[in-house]
Each structure stands twice: as structure tokens, then as C-alpha cells.
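Work package 3, deliverable 3.1, input record:
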Amino acid sequence: MGVDLAQFHEAFFEESFEAIESMEASLLKLDVAAPDAETINTIFRVAHSIKGGAGMFNFTDIASFTHTLETLLDGVRAGRTRLSTAIMDLLLKSVDVMREMLRGAQRKETFDPQRVADLQFDLEVAVANNAAAAPAAAAAPAPAAPAPAEPAAASATETVTAAPPSAPTEWLISVRPLENMLSRGNEPLALFAALAEHGELTLTVDLRELPALEAIEAHRCYLSWQVRLTSAVGKERIREAFEWVEGDCDYRITCAAPPDGAAAAAPAPQPAVAEVAAPEAPPPAPALAEPAPAQSATPAPSAETPAASRAAARTEAAPAASGGDATSIRVSTQKIDELINTVGEVVITQSMLAQLGADAEGPSAERLRSGLAQLERNVRELHESVMRVRMLPIGFAFSRFPRLVRDVAQRLGKQIELKLTGEQTELDKTVLERIGDPLVHLVRNSIDHGIEKPEARLAAGKPAAGTVHLEAFHRGSAIIIEVSDDGQGLDSDRILAKARARGLIAPNETPSQEAIHELIFLPGFSTAEQTTDLSGRGVGMDVVRRNIKSLGGKIDIRSERGKGSRFTISLPLTLAIVDGQSVSVGDETYIVPLVSIVESLQTKESGVNRLSMAGEVISFRGAYLPLVRLHDLFGIEPRSRAIHDGLVVVVEGDGQRVGLFVDDLRGQQQVVIKSLESNYGHVQGVSGATILGDGSVALILDVPGLIRSTSSRREAA
Amino acid sequence: MDAVEKSSATTIGTVALSPDAVLRLPPQCTIRDATQLLGQLMLRLEHSAPVYIDAAKVERIDTAALQLLVAFLADRKARRRAVVWLECSEGLMRAAGALGLTGALALAAAS
């Protein structure tokens, strides 16, 4: 049975995409004038790791491209290549191409080979230019050589400005693959090739664990090696070669001595099978292309017990790997969603039991209620814990912006400083995935329309560089994301003129500033003088608002001419639960999301007016609101039709308010949303359903949808 | 792809060998087909006549395949039976060298 390496492809892709994200973030952090050595090291490691993985899995195009990229990066970190804006552009383009190549490989499609070839050529030219410039660089004072005595303590800087070839160190590396290393696609050949890039490599294989052929498992690795590496690089650099085999291979790196030092280096191990020539075959020639297995009688270091050796190697393992692997696991979102669904069912069952317990009588009733109260606490904790599993820091959505802002600002000839705040604020994974595009649109708009060109800013007494600020924070049970800029703000006069020209506003009507700003959310509304590929087509802000609404959120704008704009997005913490107000209509219960409720009030018959065009309206804080009788809307017999017998819940959605007439308010509670569409079908004005404690089903109102359907009915009437 | 190419009668000098006596390694000799290679080696383990390995076409060989060959050579040696390399590709020599297995595979002689 062959091993299908394809089963590891997905893990490789996932890890590579994450690594590319971190590479891009690191690149954007780099100060071209004074690059940070550790950041360059991080970037190099990503290219190196992807190259290794791509090679192992036979993605030859990716391996070849990343090899060229790695060569350029190696020059940067060794100080041979001076970082410049042109090199930065090349590196960022390489990030894009690598990402696309990986996506192509993942989808089993070929990524534009010409684009790859062109960029690879540019990288090669950059490498060649650096090679040509190298002698000049060599004239500069050489960096201090790291002390070979304690390489582990060598700082990252020392690693980057690696010792010149004149001061190599001899490293002893024991490599013991764990039994699954080969079947997981990790190939010792690739590992040794990576080590050989650092210097002269001699190795001795230990065959003592290799069983007889009939006992062998074809996919298990029985070999181990003692490697002697003479190199000027530090321990951390050597460790990098092991990044892709972490968890599949025990290894230990120790410093022997400089080559001209005492010959008291660790004794060479003795392989159990030194030569295996068949009697009839000619004996092996004494001079071997590789170092011959040592024949010394000195005890081999691998004579220690495998367990002890493994423990030692683990201690040596890179802290990031040991810490990270031990404290986190990858779980598919499908499994998490199944778990959340099950916990949702438990919440409902617990709620039903609580209701039964409340009605229970008899000697055990009190104990039952006490137990049920405990169950309720536990279930609530369980529910909260499970919901937290789906929460991710918004930093994942923010991470694309440094690059985007840099590119867009460059194209528009603007100077932009991007500020990110509250990146650790967590929100539901689905919300996070779907908020990305609206945020991109808002940030692009800020740069394109908001921030002025440097000369205009200076003329207005502002700093040449504009600021775009992305901020996330919690407010109550909502997540607030604000996108603000210190640009020119919205031009209310132009918006109003455009609205009047399009007949959206009557010529004699003078709306408030807020109402004027709201106009930008209308479909097809744009005041941009020139349509660019970035914005100005007027197909954006309405889509932004619609997308945010589909997440149960809302977006508001505040803008001041000459000072800037601030878009405030309010999103629910999670899509799976909603804070709701239960209201009763006849025998039915409905849930009104708390986020939509403005106020609840009782009114008299005299407070209701009937207008011929608008139907019933109520007076509310100096304005007239349409009155929606829920019993009419859903065709239910109410407890009473008299307005003074019930309550009016004023709700807001899509910037409009209506009064919902209901029989009574029942209570506020968190409800688990069940999709009505997947279980039944779409119902206008209803966003989902939930199961109440008594087992009955309550519909959750979709307030914006309900307002829309009410408006269209009235217009039709 | 088969791990081991179908053997056909091979002539070495003037001696005609039976197909079973020659093991032809395929261009891609990797863990993917290691189980098949193990089967082919097991078939030949007890052959009293020398087993000839033809590695002329090997372009890529990995650790899993090489360690099977090492074990085969060791077991044959323990049985006092011969293994003869007919021809070794550059790819095989390089991989064996990189893993420190040239000696264990008696490839220095073959080269």
C-alpha cells in the first residue's frame, strides 16, 4: 500500500498561507532605511519553509520560485544586499505570487506562468546585481564574529550578520527521525540538503535499528544520523532547517569546537553496519564519495537509550514549536459548528427542564429546583465556552490593511499612516470573514476620497501624511469597528446638489447634515469627480451597508468638512445567539432583537392617527411613525385590538423607525438562532426561529426586513 | 506506476540471467511504492544465485526506498548471498551519498 502524500497537502497549504500572512506583515513592518534583523530573519524563514514543503510535495514551480526568493533574502539578511524600496516592491510582489501559486496548487490549477517567470527573472536580476555589488560591500568593516563557545546564546543579530567564513564552528547534530517522519512526507534528504547550505556537511548513518527485511515496515524510518557541520552560522540558523520536521524528528545540536580547536570533539558514532558488500561483489573501494562510517571503537553517542535521547532532543527543540504544538490544535469549523449546535440543543432542553421544575410539587421539588439551578449555571458556562471557540481576533481581518494602504497610497501619490487599534478584539469567525470586504471598501474610500494629496494637506495646515485609523472594541454585546480618517470629510453641498439633481430631495427641502450623509448609502450614489478603479462608481456604500446588515449589524457615519470622516460599524458578537425581547401577540411569542429596540411605550387611542397614504401612525418624540400591528402582519388573533390594551415597541432598522403593536412584553433573554430558511423557507420580516423553554417555537423578527415589507405594502395600498 | 519495472531477460557478458534475478528500479523510486519494492525484494531474498540490481533509470530515490535496499543487502550478506549492482544512476548515487549510505549499499564498488 503506497502512502498518498496528497493527504498532507491541505496542512501544507494552510500552514503556508499563514506563513505568507506573517511574511507580508513582517515586510510591511520593515523600515527600509534601518531593517530589523529579526524581522528579516522571520521573512527568510517563511520563504525557506515554503520552499522545503513545496519541494517535498513536488510542487516544483513553487519550490523553484521560493528558492530564488530565498536567495535574495539570504543576501539581505547576510548584509550583502541593501534593502531598497525597489527590493521591497519585489518582495511584496513575491508574496502575492507565492500566495497565488499556492492557491493554484491547492485548486489543482496552474497559476499564470508568465507572471511567475517575469517576477522570478526580476528576483534573479536583483540577486545578480547584489552579487556584482558584493566586493564593494566586502570592503566595509566586517561584522564581529560571534563567540563560538555558546552559540545558543547568540542573538538574532549575530545570526543575521553571521560570522565570516574565516571563523567557522563545528557543530554536531544528531538526527533521529520518529517513526512517522517519512510517511508524513518529511524527507531526510531535504533536511540534509538544507543543512548543507550552511557549510561543509559530513554525516554518519546509524543502522542499528534497521530490522531484517521481513520485519521491516516500508514507510517507517529506522535510520538515524550523526551530522558534523562546519559552518559560520549560529545555532538558530541551523535550527531553521528543522522547522518542517518539528514533531517528526528528534534532533540535538551541539557545538563541538572550531576546526583548529582541541580534537576533543564528541566521539564519532559507530554504525552497526559499516559495510554490506556481498561476498561475490567486489569489495567497496576505500575512498568513498561520502565520509565512510566511522570504524572507531569509541562508544557512539547514540548508545544512550532512545527515550533519554528523545527527551534530550525535545528539550533542545525550538520553544515556539514545543509551546505552540502543545497548547493548540487545528479543528475544522464544521466540528465546532456541530458542537455549538449540540450545545444550543442542551440550552433549550435545560430551559424546558427549568420550566418543568418551576411547576414541580412534592417533597423532592426543592432539591430538583436546586439541581436545575446548578444545571443552568453549568449550561450557561458551557455555552459561553463553546461560543468562545468560534471567536477570533479581528487582527485577522486587519492584517490585510497595511499592504492595501501602502499600495493604494503609492498609486494615488498620497502619504498615509495607518493606525490599527484593538486588534485583539474577538468576534465570531463568520462575522470576521464577512466583514473583510466592507472594511476594504471603507478604507479604500478613505484613502481615495477622504485623505487629500500632501500639498493640499499642507495648504490646509495639516501634516502631509494623512491618518487612517481602524479601531475595534466591545460595547455591550456588540463589537464596534470604526474606520476614521483626518481627510477632507464629506462635501454635504455636493451630495445635496447631486441628490436634488436626481430628484431624491425636493428643491425646497433642507435635510439635516446626518440625513445628507446618509444619502451616500443609496444605491448608485457617488459624487466622485472621476471614477477610479478604486472607488467612485457608486456601487459600494449601499453594498457595504447591505453586507453589514446581513450580519445583523449597522453602519453610521459622522463627517465634518475639512476634518475627516468616521464610519462606525456595530456588529453582534456572534451570529448564533441574539439578545432578544420576547413579546406576545395572541398565543404567539416573537423575539425582537434588543439591538433594534428604541423604546417601548403605552399609548392611547388618541395618540394614533390614520393617514390616507401612510395608514396608522403614532406620534413619537415630535415625529410620526408608522404603526405596524403584528397581529395583522402575521394573521393572528390578538388579545385585544384596542391600542391602550397593548404596548408599542419602537424599533429602528435601515435608518427608519416604526412602532410595533404587541399585546405584551414578556422578558429579555438570549436565544439560540435556528435557521428558518434551512428548516422551512424564507419568511419576509423573520430572520430565524428559536425554541423557548416551554418547547414552543418563537419567530425572531428581522426588523429591517419587516420595515421594508411594511413600506412596500403601504405603497401598494 | 509500478515500483519495480517488469523484468525481462538480461544478458550480462555471455551469461543469460533469469528475469527474477534482475531487479530493475523505476525512475521514481519513493515511499509511494515502497511496499511494492519491499515485496520485490522479499521475493529475491532467498535466491541462491546473485541478485542483480539495475538502477540505471533511477531519477529520484528517497530514504524509504534506500533503507529497504540497505536492509536487503544486509540480509543477503547474512545469508552469504550476493547482490550485484548492474548500473547506478547519478540520482541514486547522489541520494545514497547524501544519506551516508554509499558504504552500506556497497555503491562505491559499483561506481
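Chain A touches chain B through 50 residues (CB under 8 Å).
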